[in-house]
Amino acid sequence: MKLFNTLTRNVEEFVPNVEGKVNMYTCGPTVYHFAHIGNLRSYIMEDVLEKTLRYAGYDVKRVMNITDVGHLSSDADTGEDKMLKGAKRENKTVMDIAKFYTDAFFADCAKLNIKTPDVVEPATNCIDSFIEMIEKLLEKGYAYQAGENIYFDTSKLQNYYVFGNQNEDELMVGVRDDVTEDTNKKNKNDFVLWFTKSKFEDQALKWDSPWGVGYPGWHIECSCISMKHLGEYMDIHCGGIDNMFPHHTNEIAQSEAYLGHKWCNYWFHVHHLNDQTGKMSKSKGEFLTVSLIESKGYNPLAYRLFCLQSHYRKPLVFSYEALDQATGTYNKLKNRITALSKDGVVDEAAVAEFKAKFVEAVGNDVNTSMGITLLYDVLKAELNDATRRAIIGSFDEVLSLDLLKEEVAAEPVVDAQLEGYVLAKIEERKAAKKDKNFELADAIRAELLEKGVEIKDTREGVVWKLI
Ligand code: AMP
Ligand code: ZN
User: Fold this and answer.
1) Does ligand 1 have an atom closer than 6 angstroms to the CB of 273?
2) Which residues pair with 456 in a beta bridge?
3) CATH entry, 298-399, from 1.20.120, 3.60.21, 1.25.40, 1.10.4160
4) Which of 140, 225, 228, 461 could disulfide-link to 65, CB 3.0 to 4.6 Å?
5) Which residue intervals of the chain bear CATH 1.20.120?
């Protein structure tokens, strides 16, 4: 497998720490609102990465956090806590908001066939380990207390900007968000590990700590949660490109200061889904969610295909015209595939050959559009339908587009128990008619009708259907 690594800015051969095993971590959602389809682009592409690794034979363990505390509206540690903002908006408690939007997130993921990671851990579960890590950072001299908050001291690091030279725009987060800078910070990029002196007195969730009652900063959760489940050495860390700075930069700073050695080898960043005006976000433009596109009649899997048609390292522009096009492609592709007959003997050698091609293609830095092209190659190849089905079914373990799934018939499905009951009633009615007991015959017809079954006397006998 080959992967582009943001740390080296190169496509590299992927070599895990332990042969055959992959430790993988994904920054989870901040559960103060629905995920928009931009967030979900990141999760779709990370899902494909995980499934490609599994397809290639790796034993993968994937962990995801749920951010339910500490993420402020500005990445420069200022602004309002996003969770509190959500709770105020809906007049609910922070915990209610967290539960509701965590469930909504996984419901959206299910519609997009995104697998739930092996471990999902909310930040509020792990406060003790955050405190322990912060204590060690203080002990080692990488953190300081100022204005009653605890900060990470970025000047203690040889190279804080691990992802290379960030441009001015990326470094000006605080300014860009038009908020006042925190004057407690010794250096511009220092970040909060623990808040006690908060300017938001109504912060809902607070915990005891050696530095007073307070709550954690945003970045600490990912370092702690990943180490809790994956240990001190990680293979792949994923997230959207906006997380590269400051979130991931800070995660690396504190993790490596804490551990005293390199932490994660490969950084996988998904580029943004944009709308006509730029990066899609929850606060601007039409708030595009899975439910919204469904309510407009789109199949969420057509959106998944739309994402898979382009490379994760390129920005992708969303428009309804583009989604219409993806829908057309999805429907045509699916019609061709479901029309394949099920007869014939599967040519196992051909299946193995195509599987290898798929690993080669998609395993080359998650080249999903090559994976889609291979589907067409299978449809064109000189193979019997059973073999085509077997290969496509196998590709779909990674693409997850439900390519072989027959649509459920629009007509109601009759279960065996109902059928037995109807046939017995028809026999009873026949006997009643023979006895000239038309009253009973009519009563039986009415009883069936009440159960949603309509019967008709024809020359061929009695026929019935569900209404
Ligand atoms: P959040 O819920 O804000 O913590 O974001 C969840 C994930 O979505 C993170 O990995 C973000 O980097 C990613 N993300 C945010 N906006 C976009 C976007 N417009 N396109 C793709 N990914 C995004
Ligand atoms: Zn994170």
Assistant:
1) yes
2) 463
3) 1.20.120
4) 225
5) 298-399
State whether residue 241 is helix, strand or coil: helix
**Which of these ranges, 194-203, 421-430, 439-448, 458-467, has the smallest mean pLDDT?**
194-203
Q: Is the CB of 16 under 6 A from ligand 1?
A: no
DSSP, res 30 = B
Give yes or no for a contact between 302 and 399, defined as CB atoms under 8 angstroms apart: no
Strand locations in 254-410 (E) = 264-270, 273-275, 278-279, 316-317
Distance in angstroms (rounded) separating the CA atoms of residues 288 and 308: 18
Atom number in ligand 1 closest to CA 242 = 12
Contact partners, residue 103, CB within 8 Å, separation at least 6? none
Residue 409 pLDDT grade (very low, low, confident, very high; cuts 50, 70, 90) = low
Nearest CA to ligand 1 atom 14: 39
Q: With bands split at pLDDT 50, 70 and 90, how would you rate the model's confidence at 177?
A: very low
Which 3-state string (H, E, C) describes 47-89? HHHHHHHHHCCCEEEEEEEEECCCCECCCCCCCCEHHHHHHHH
Nearest-5° Cα angle at 88, 82 to 91 = 135
Domain with CATH 3.40.50.620 in the chain: 2-270
> Does the pLDDT value for residue 172 go beyond 60?
no
33 lines ligand 1 (CB under 6 A): no
What is the per-residue pLDDT for 75? 65
Q: What is the CATH number of domain 2-270?
A: 3.40.50.620
The ligand 1 atom nearest the CA atom of 273: 20
Ligand 1 atom at minimum distance from 31 CA: 2
Mean pLDDT of 13-37: 97
Query: Using CA atoms, how far apart are residues 160 and 172, in angstroms rounded to an integer?
Result: 16
Ligand 1 geometric centre to CA of 38 (Å): 6
DSSP code string of 412-443: PPPPHHHHHHHHHHHHHHHHHHHTT-HHHHHH
Q: Decide: 64 in ligand 1 pocket, CB within 6 A.
A: no
Find the 249 Cα to ligand 1 centroid distance in Å. 16
**Burial class of residue 384 in the structure, from the number of CB atoms within 10 Å of its CB (0-12 exposed, 13-18 middle, 19+ buried):** middle
Q: C-alpha dihedral over 199, 285, 6, 140, to 10 degrees?
A: 10
Give the CA distances from residue 72 to residues 196, 297, 438, in Å, rounded to whole numbers and listed in that order. Answer: 14, 35, 76
Check residue 246 and report its DSSP letter. Answer: I
Instruction: Tell me the whole-structure pTM to 2 decimals.
Output: 0.85
Omega of the bond leading into 246 within 30 degrees of 0 (cis):
yes
Distance 337 CA to ligand 1 centre (A): 33
